[in-house]
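Narrative summary of target 7.
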Amino acid sequence: MNPLNPFFAVIIYLISFLTGHIIKSKYKINPLKGRYECIDGMRGFLALGVFIHHSNIWHQYLHTGYWDNPKSNLYVHLGQTSVLLFFMITSFLFISKLLNSNEKVFNWRNFFLSRVFRLVPMYFFLIWLIIISVMFISQWQVNVAFQDFFASIFKWCLFTINGRPDINNSRFTAIIDAAVEGTLPYEWLFYFSLPLIAIFILKIKPKIWYIILSVIFIAAFYEVHGMFGYFIYSFIGGAVAPFILKFTSFGKKMSDTYASIIILVCLFLILQFSTVYNPFCIVLVTIVFTLIALGASLFGLLKNTTLKFLGEISYSTYLLHGITLFTVFYFVFGLEKVKQLTTIEYSLLVFSIAPLVVLISFWGFKYIEKPYMDKAKTIIGKLDADSVS
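Modeled conformation, tokenized:
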């Protein structure tokens, strides 16, 4: 089977779904039913889509030496469109929080604290794995000046907002994690932009120093990182649904069947584009996301509990799938041996990695993400109690 064959993706989804079902059943983990359960189910699809996307890129990279998009619209969109939909989810959730705060004061301290505890621990764990991988490859020799070595690590610890230089001059640095860290700076850009956005939404405006912080961060981000317009467009697209939910009854009147049909039509049209970075394609993706955010379940599929479980561990899947692929390809088999595999053998190898990705993602969620999320709740609770007393 060729990795560009659509059944390559279908089989990985099925293997991952079965693995997730077994883990969920064994450990009795049942994702909470939330108001946006279709979005929770969609997360599982998206994270696995990025994994499949990078599996294709790896196959291409091994034979050409170029880390570039797959030669298939389907596998391009499993990566690019999934990333944009993740951004839309972020925008949707936090714009909704602002809109639903009503007359209450929005607690910006708690918001930023929760974001730090949500994103940083797993990301720092990834950085630690990258450093260890680089040093193994370098045979534990530091090949650059110590100040350059630590300066490169420091930039990675800042979510690569100020660049992502090769650590220890290793050319593998960026592909060890399949370069997934490249999208995370935009998550922080959105978070720090929220106080400015809140000026137009909240009745009780943010304190002036939050506004100043927002302006400084955006200006610094633009200066040291630059901005990719289509990522910004995706945040705008994700903000459509919260206003529809807040100010109209369209979501309650919407037919799930008709909305699901429209989603399938839009997905078919999206696949006609060679890249998601096209204005018309962004509009189609926005329509898909908006309908799902309003409750469209793709004929009930997105409400499946196993999919919601895979969605719950999706941050770990997103961050750790790349280093899992690299570890198996480089350290277990060796890149030359993987390069010599036939397409069927390569596909079978990736199929065998899929359950490992789900299992590692589960461990990442259980032992890193969840404990720190709970810790954030505890700290926020204490801070709130102290402020009242």
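The chain has a mean pLDDT of 94.
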